[in-house]
Design a protein that fits this description.
This protein is an all-alpha fold. The chain contains one helix and no strands. It is rod-shaped. The relative contact order is 0.03. It comes from Nannospalax galili. It catalyses: L-lysyl-[protein] + acetyl-CoA = N(6)-acetyl-L-lysyl-[protein] + CoA + H(+). Belongs to the BLOC1S1 family.
Length: about 110
């Protein structure tokens, strides 16, 4: 009888050990799945951020190019205005010289 009791207790211990292993495995799987969801979301967010950074970099390069072109346009416009002012000053001097010559001839 004691032999049967010992055998029964051994079987129960083995069954409990298997149930504990199964429970721990289920818990571990559930924890891993839970953390994997967070990791997957972080990965997706990182990919979105990388894409947005690349988009912003392209836009910055384009903006810098546009700004450079506009600066050159303004510089050219300023040079044209200086030339116009030089021509205006020359015309005023010629006009003054002609007035002096006309006065001297009279």
């Amino acid at each position: 009888m004691s032999c049967l009791l010992k055998e029964h207790q051994a079987k129960q211990n083995e069954r409990k050990r298997r149930e504990a292993i199964t429970a721990v495995t289920c818990l571990t799987d559930a924890l891993v799945d839970h953390f994997n969801v967070g990791v997957a979301q972080a990965y997706r967010n990182q990919r979105k951020l990388d894409h947005e950074v690349k988009t912003v970099q392209v836009q910055v390069v384009w903006f810098a190019k546009q700004t450079g072109q506009r600066i050159r346009m303004v510089e050219n416009f300023n040079q044209a205005l200086e030339k116009i002012q030089d021509v205006e000053n020359w015309a005023q001097r010629v006009d003054l010289d002609m007035l002096i010559v006309a006065t001297a001839l009279e």
